[in-house]
Every structure is written in structure tokens, then in C-alpha cells.
Write a structure and sequence with these properties.
There is one protein chain. This protein has ten helices and twelve strands. With 311 residues, the chain is an alpha/beta fold. The strands form four sheets. A five-stranded mixed beta sheet has the order 4-3-5-12-6. A three-stranded antiparallel beta sheet has the order 10-7-11. Strands 1-2 form a two-stranded antiparallel ribbon. Helix 1 packs across helix 2, helix 1 crosses helix 3 (36-50) and helix 1 packs across helix 4. The longest helix is centred in the first third of the chain and has 25 residues, at 67-91.
Length: 311
């Protein structure tokens, strides 16, 4: 069988990815410190090699990716990352694994989870670096699909068929209340008992719908008195007596950044849990360094392992 000779180079792919990110030859030129004609020529050669148009050129309005360009972009990023990993492995055969991981994390999970997880991992793998991004669920999935993220730590909420999800641990919801609230004397609370209280909603896509659906079992949903997309702001509002809220991820501390305490109470009701896990694109094969990190996450956070945290 005759070998298929490659008619494109890694340099052309690198120029394509940078241009797709900037959607401008001029901006890509500044980013790469390469002349604009060199980038334009490389993209044209790449389009000829692939036999497809990658960009639509707009007069005085930059560029936009074609459908073919969007589909090729993720694979191009993956190929470049594999090339970088190959070079890193060749340089460090005697010093262990190396490389870079683009790690996404759901906004509400990042503060209590991200720093400790990365710190533990790099302590064992000094040659590995991270580029992190905190985002909402839909943005995480978009970045996984286009290859700008290798994997993401998130919940199993509204997963799509093109996203692979590795479960790590189930997390039941719990109520947080002001320390001197009348319900704080109870060891557990009911959903119905919270309906008369002001609700401080964590206003994030998917999260707000999940928390609202918990109350469908009692026939009425709480009306938010306050909203915030920042978990720390939500906790601060609760601690300062503005209402109750609901969270999932266990906390190490029940004191807010302004030094006020709140309390945590489980539910007496049967409530729907969420599952913390690792999301990846099904269309992109994970590199060795990414697989190693995913395995580390399973060891550190998997079901049956040590408690993530107990407030």
C-alpha cells in the first residue's frame, strides 16, 4: 500500500490555529511575530492541500471560519499538542513526563477545587504546566469541541453525545443558612421549610435550573430575592442574613471572606444529586499527559476516596 505523503506542515497548522483564534491576518501576524503575507500564503497553501476553504474573507471586517475550518480547527490543535508532547518527551526521557494541559473548570467549582488539585499534581509531575480557564457549562463544551481545552472538571448536567464524561463522585445538594437562623437548630432541613425564606440564587446557567427543579417535589419553586453568579458572593449574602441558598460542592470553611459564619444542613427530602467528573471531546484522542492527569483526578477525587472536604 502506497504511503500517503503529507502536503502540509506544522508551521502552516500553527498559522491556521492562530488566525482562527484572532480571525484576522494582521492580529495573527502580531501574535506570531511573522509577516502578514507569510501567514496569508501559508493559509492559502493549506487550503489548497486540504482542498477546502478554511476562511471567508470579509472586506474590512476580518475573517470568519467556514464549516470545514471549524471542523479542522480542533484536529489541528490536537495535532499541534501531540507534536509538542513528542518534542517534550524526546527532551526529557530521563526526567519524567512533561507537557502542557489546557484545563477547564466550571465557574462554581474552581475556587474550592482547582488550586489544590493542580498543586498536588505538579508536586508529583514537575515537568507539566497548566493553562486554566473557568467558564459556564456551554462555554466549556464549546472549548472542548474546538480543541482549546483538553478536559474540563464539571457536573453531569446537560451532557451532549459528543462529550465523553468520566464520573468521579456524586455530590448531594445541601442548604446553607445564616448561623443564627431558626432552622440552624435542626440537624437537617426540608425543602418545604425553605419556601417561606428569602432565596439567594447561584445564578449560573444549568445550576439555577437544577436547584429550582429540586423544589418540584413539593409543588412550588422559591422566588429569588437575590442573585449572583459568584459563589462567594452567594455565601456572603447568606452569612449576612439575606436568605438561604443551595450548593453541592463540599466546603472546607463556613466563614466568608468578610469574616461572617454560615451553617450547612443536609436535606431530609430525597433530592437529586449531581456527579462531579471529567468531560472531554469524543472526537479528540487525549494525549498521554492528559490521560495521566485524568487518572490522577480519579485517584484523588474518585468515589470511595478521601472526602473532598467537610465543613
Amino acid at each position: 500500500m502506497e504511503n500517503l505523503s503529507l502536503r502540509y506542515s506544522l508551521r502552516q497548522l500553527r498559522y491556521f490555529v492562530a488566525t482562527a483564534q484572532a480571525l484576522s491576518f494582521t492580529a495573527a501576524s502580531r501574535l506570531l511575530h511573522v509577516s502578514q503575507p507569510s501567514i496569508s500564503t501559508a493559509i492559502a497553501e493549506l487550503e489548497e492541500s486540504f482542498g477546502v476553504q478554511l476562511f471567508i474573507r470579509h472586506h474590512a471586517a476580518g475573517l470568519s471560519l467556514t464549516q470545514a475550518g471549524r471542523e479542522i480547527l480542533g484536529m489541528a490543535r490536537s495535532l499541534l499538542k501531540n507534536a509538542e508532547e513528542l518534542q517534550g518527551v524526546a527532551r526529557s526521557l530521563d526526567s519524567g513526563m512533561s507537557g502542557s494541559i489546557a484545563l477547564g473548570c466550571l465557574t462554581s467549582l474552581a475556587p474550592p477545587l482547582l488550586a489544590g488539585l493542580i498543586s498536588r499534581f505538579v508536586a508529583e509531575h514537575a515537568g507539566i504546566t497548566f493553562r486554566t480557564a473557568e467558564a459556564h457549562q456551554e462555554d466549556l463544551f464549546t472549548s472542548l469541541r474546538d480543541g482549546s481545552l483538553d478536559l474540563a472538571l464539571t457536573y453531569d448536567i446537560d451532557l451532549t453525545d459528543d462529550i465523553a464524561f468520566q464520573p468521579l463522585r456524586t455530590l448531594p445538594p445541601y442548604a446553607i443558612l445564616p448561623a443564627r437562623h431558626r432552622l440552624a437548630r435542626q440537624r437537617a432541613v426540608t425543602l418545604k421549610s425553605l419556601l417561606a425564606e428569602p432565596y439567594v440564587m447561584l445564578d449560573l446557567p444549568h445550576s439555577r435550573e437544577y436547584f429550582a427543579r429540586l423544589f418540584d417535589a413539593v409543588g412550588e419553586r422559591p422566588v429569588p430575592a437575590f442573585r449572583s453568579a459568584q459563589p462567594e458572593v452567594v455565601r456572603g449574602m447568606v452569612a449576612n442574613g439575606l436568605g438561604f441558598s443551595i450548593l453541592n460542592f463540599p466546603l472546607q470553611s463556613t466563614r466568608t471572606v468578610d469574616g461572617v459564619d454560615f451553617i450547612i444542613r443536609p436535606f431530609k427530602d430525597e433530592v437529586a444529586v449531581v456527579t462531579l467528573g471529567i468531560a472531554q471531546s469524543r472526537s479528540l484522542k487525549p494525549r498521554q499527559v492528559v490521560q495521566r492527569f485524568a487518572g490522577f483526578c480519579a485517584e484523588w477525587m474518585g468515589e470511595g476516596q478521601r472526602p473532598l472536604s467537610l465543613a
